[in-house]
Specification:
Length: 378
């Protein structure tokens, strides 16, 4: 059966990279570019990008992102950019939604996209897909493109200045990559986000991603707490951004993302938690479904140490809230990629796994003692 490995054209990561961005963007033949970014970004890092591009003689228009990666926002931006002088490259600078919107806008304009994440909270930068939301912010669907981004530029100085919670959430999203790819590979009918079988590269990168996080996760989080870049942070940004994206796209997703997606249906959880935080608890649930108790303990211990939610209560869900659990269970078994698990997943099994993950989390917190929980305090 078909194997597909996708990737961005080039990935560049360095501290202070934004001040030299034009050197890399110029290699794409850019003479006139559009920068998609928020108004907040225009008062901050976007100014450094503009300076770099101006120095290199590259003309710029700036498109202000409205905040939601919805079809309406994308069409509005496409119309606005078309009304300016023609551009040859679109640069998306910001968080996951800005980057996803940028990929969709560039696709519609038929120009290469340069992706510049300012957070390491998710694996959006390196994938050839965008998650679309309704204007109200509910997940609607996703678009898959024929090509990944032309160029990904990651400035670790900017990542280190962002609130710690974002890097921590990225660790949750990235850690799941290996376990989901492994499940997808174990199922002979498992398929990746590109509609193909997981190949060796996707699996190897996913495994390296998890190994890197176990080794450097705690130290990298401490570096961001101190707002400085060190070798551990460079490793974890690489894992959260490049390895996680490539591994998820070419290795496949499974139960962890099904549970995470189900959590978004609980309004309180969706409003207060980041994608990677929901994936973290989703991964613990997946490992319980797989009866991988030792591995679940290892993962849970790291999650608790870096400040990811490891109990239902830490996600703002009361154990006794039967209606909330019913919603999560039903949505989990409805998720398209739950079929990537190598065995049939029943509602009862999901419910049991959610509660077992919760018990494990409570036990680990009791052993580790009082570790500052970041999610609600940043
Ligand atoms: Zn994810």
């Amino acid at each position: 059966m078909t194997r597909i490995f996708g990737s961005p054209g080039r990935y560049v990561q360095a501290a202070g990279l934004i001040d030299h961005a034009a050197g890399h963007i110029g290699k794409l033949g850019a003479r006139r570019v559009a920068i998609l970014c928020s108004s907040r970004s225009q008062r901050n890092e976007a100014r450094r990008l503009v300076d770099s591009l101006h120095t290199a003689g590259i003309a710029i228009v700036i498109a202000t992102f409205g905040g939601e990666c919805s079809r309406q926002e994308i069409e509005k931006q496409v119309a606005w950019v078309k009304a300016q002088a023609p551009i040859d490259v679109l640069i998306a600078l910001g968080g996951g939604k800005t980057l996803d919107a940028g990929k969709s806008i560039a696709h519609r304009l038929a120009v290469p996209v340069v992706v510049m994440p300012t957070l390491a909270s998710n694996d959006a930068p390196c994938t050839a897909l965008s998650v679309l939301y309704t204007p109200e912010g509910a997940t609607e669907s996703f678009e898959v493109f024929d090509q990944g981004p032309a160029l990904v530029l990651v400035d670790t100085d900017i990542i280190a200045q962002a609130p710690t919670r974002f890097l921590v959430a990225g660790i949750g999203d990235a850690m799941s990559t290996w376990y989901e790819a492994r499940a997808c590979q174990q199922n002979p009918a498992g398929i990746t986000l590109l509609g193909a079988r997981p190949g060796l590269a996707g699996l190897a990168l996913a495994e390296a991603c998890a190994r890197t996080l176990f080794e450097h996760g705690v130290e990298a989080v401490a570096a961001v707490e101190a707002k400085r870049v060190n070798a551990a942070l460079e490793q974890v940004v690489d894992a959260n951004t490049l390895l996680s994206g490539l591994g998820a796209e070419s290795g496949g997703v499974a139960a962890a993302h099904a549970v995470a997606q189900a959590f978004t249906l609980l309004e309180e959880v969706d409003r207060n938690y980041l994608h990677g935080e929901m994936v973290a608890f989703g991964l613990l649930t997946q490992l319980m479904l797989e009866a991988e108790r030792d591995e679940a303990g290892r993962v849970c211990s790291l999650f608790a140490q870096v400040g990811l939610p490891v109990t239902l209560a830490q996600l703002g869900i009361a154990e006794a809230d039967a209606a909330a659990l019913d919603t999560v269970v039903a949505a989990t078994i409805d998720f398209p990629f739950i079929g990537n698990m190598p065995f049939a997943v029943t509602a009862d099994a999901v419910r049991r796994a959610l509660l077992e993950a919760d018990v494990l989390g409570q036990a680990i917190i009791a052993v580790l003692g009082d570790i500052p929980y970041r999610a609600l305090h940043s």
